[in-house]
Design goal:
Shape: globular
Number of strands: 13
Radius of gyration: 20 Å
Mean pLDDT: 96
Order of helices and strands: EEHEHEHHEHHHEHEHEHEHEHEHHHEE
CATH superfamily of the largest domain: Thiolase/Chalcone synthase
Number of domains: 2
CATH topology of the largest domain: Peroxisomal Thiolase, Chain A, domain 1
Low-confidence stretches: none
Amino acid sequence: MAVRVVVTGMGVCAPNGIGLVAFGHALQSGMSGINFQPELKELNFSCQIAGKPNVDAYNLNDYFTNVQLKGLNASGVVYGVMAGKDAWQDAGLSANTETPDWDSGIVFGTGILGVDKFREAIYKVDQGNVRRLGSTSVIQTMASGISAYLGGMLGCGNQVTTNSSACTTGTEAILMGYERIKSKKAKRMLVGSCSDSGPYVWGGFDAMRILPRNYNDSPAKASRPMSATACGFVPGSGAGALVLESSESARARGAKIYGELLGGSINSGGQRNGGTMIAPNSEAVVRCIRTAIKESGITPSQIDVINGHLTATTKDPLEIKNWSIALGRSGKDFPYVNSFKGLFGHCLAAAGSIECVGSLLQFKLGQVFGNLNCEDLHPEIKKVVDASRIPQKSLDIAPQIIAKASFGFGDVNACAIFKSYNK
């Protein structure tokens, strides 16, 4: 019998809401989490706004021991642990304190981890104070530090690893965990991704001049996916986490189920035929979407909602065109489309996982969430999709199947298909 994979727990640490309740409310109501960052102004950034989770309002002792907090200077680790432990608890699971849980594993990705800690270490080494680095500098700066933290905190004894594929990282991690359960190598997988915050992460993008420079006085209006006046993505940070589980295991323990992951696809455009380090190969994007649909055992006509990558750059119209080609749908026949980046910016390696949590909340809340800042829909998009399919405010329409895609630097793609759960 084929293994069905369901989502039994979720956690999120996002710029516009930490925890499922706050995050869901923000998505429903269109509440922005993008704010002016004085530090960026002091450092002469052109774009002085960003999406950054407000973890200062939380007691980190609820997530870390005093020993773990000593010398902790890696925002991605903080975001990832908060989201991951919340997801585990939300799934009704507890940390295994005696022996490893051989049936539970972790795939938790990141783009860069502990960049502030790494900077701190560089200064100490250059000053000849290598002995003052502390015992946690390595684990805070190695990419797999986030999965190592979570693996030890939860006692997971199955595969515990980290992936990294730029903006595709989060969605890729989810599909990697899915494959592990489908192949019967694990019963449960905590999957997700995180991204550090701060100038040392965002500076390169500011230097590339692909961030909006004219909204420093009006941050909430800056991130404009699918808009005619979009002028670059707003950098963000945070973490999203999901507990994937075989439906047999979930039913056996009476777990609640947010939705079913039907399948997905991961590929690359090879940086050929229009694909580059920073731009997608359209043929590869179309292939990724079509393969995800085929692997999920559905037809394109069954997709109710697309949660796109849609970063508020000049590539948004091309993404919509690629979706139309892949699905063979256009106009009023097109699925509803939303991009959460209008609300909290582009959270880089954390984007896919945070947005997957948001996508699944649409099942739970029985709504299609609206889009912020695209009241002036791009004319090239209007040629493909009827404006009614890109709602400005949340709609009381309960979706049944949602397609979520992420496309990243390096011409890499991932698409996951989620379904409202039916026994």
